[in-house]
Amino acid sequence: MKKEIFINASMGETRLAICEDGRLSELYFEKAEKERMVGDVYYGQVAKVLKGMQAAFINIGLTQDAFLHFSDIGDNLAEFNKLYQEAGKPPKNSRRGGNDHHLHQGQPILVQITKEPISNKGARVTTNIALPGRFLVLIPFDHTVGVSRKIHNRREKGRLKSIGREIKPNGFGIVIRTVSEGRDKQELLDDLNSLMKTWEQIVKNIAKSKPPVRVHKDMDMLSSTIRDLFTNDVDRLVVDDKKMHKQISKYLREVASSLVDRVEWHRDKEPIFDRFGIESEISKSLARKFWLKSGGYIFFDHTEALTAIDVNSGRFVGKKDHDANSLKINLEAAREIARQLRLRDIGGIIICDFIDMVEEKNRRKLQDEFFNELKADRAQVNIAPISKFGIIEMTRERVRPPLLFSISEPCPACLGTGRVMSKTTILARIERWVKRYRREKGERSLQLVVNPELAQFLNAGTPSHVLRLSWRYWTRIKVTTDESVTMEDFHFLDKEGQEDLTQKYS
User: Fold this and answer.
1) What total of structural domains would you count in the chain?
2) Which residues contact 482 (CB under 8 A, 6 or more apart)?
3) pLDDT tens digits, 337-386
4) Do 49 and 177 have their domain in common?
């Protein structure tokens, strides 16, 4: 498989695209005004302990308190309390066990963000701190040595584990990453020493700080991607910013000199994402409706609780029986859905409604195909057997908001529903307002400010809607337009246009 990474840098945001065999498979955005938070370590304070929810809320200094489930409380809490005491601070409750009795309101606690805030939910955190490097992951207050499961060679796995045992510091655990395959002891040791310096700095920050405060900032999106994803299986990395090209090359010379030659600077005047066909792929991935090559299509609908995916036959007309035709579309859809889940970065509960099939063997084929395609996903995926209704239920690890939510904002007109009030409904609202106004006021002249499109509707007909409204309530209504007013909104002003009366009689 040919794997390439493309980076587009602009004033407002940085975009990173991963392509596999010429097709866009993953996309990451980093905006200047919104920092990446996953991996950041906070010295926080317990705000609430809710035994009924088996969770606690942690004040880490953000607008919303972070969410800490009891299952994310490790045995390391006692060790942290010892560290806290050694820093010259009063001792706290330090009983071991990973249960709720560890926590009480006002207690200082060290946590790491595992999931970014999404919608009205705060960040999710854990007490199991993990500091990732190029070759290793350092785990304070742990004692284990692990090796990536993606390293399948038994001899290599044993060699790396042996090195891990030799270099592991007391009181720390380490996990040896996939990229360490074939690396010597010194390279792993250098990475470990760098991570130990990071931890020592965190300890110093705790000693001199009062919660809530951030004590460690993880790498930004670009740096972490280069660290985690730019490995030997990547054919090339192309970036359109000269300064960024130099930064990446400098970093690679220190940690992976063999990859430096694979970094290219895109000097062409044509935008990098246009040049490699990525921009058009992004547009398709933001659409609610995605067309398949066969003529079928897929709908992606996001709700607060889950993401619903619906497969339809569309323009496809097969020459075989219904079940065979449905299987063909479903198999194509399964392959595309697996790719779109990665590309759109959809997480949480996902419901896939495939086209109904009668034969059990076809259902099994669909499930096997979908399962195999999902193996390429780096996120953790759990999938349930296909139901008799042709529905597959699954969950996908959610670390950050979906792509659509990352680069868009709720519509001010529809408030994120995707729908707006009909013009006749708005007319009825306007009439109710006039009725309330005329019951309390004697003035018979008003100005009505609306969107130009709504104004066209109000003035249509013979007699027009606004004229009939004026006759009914014996009130002269002059319609004026303002493009800044949304379709669902309207403003009533007094005769001179000086005073806004809308809220007073709403």
Assistant:
1) 4
2) 449, 450, 451, 491
3) 999 999 998 999 999 999 988 888 999 999 999 999 998 888 889 999 98
4) yes
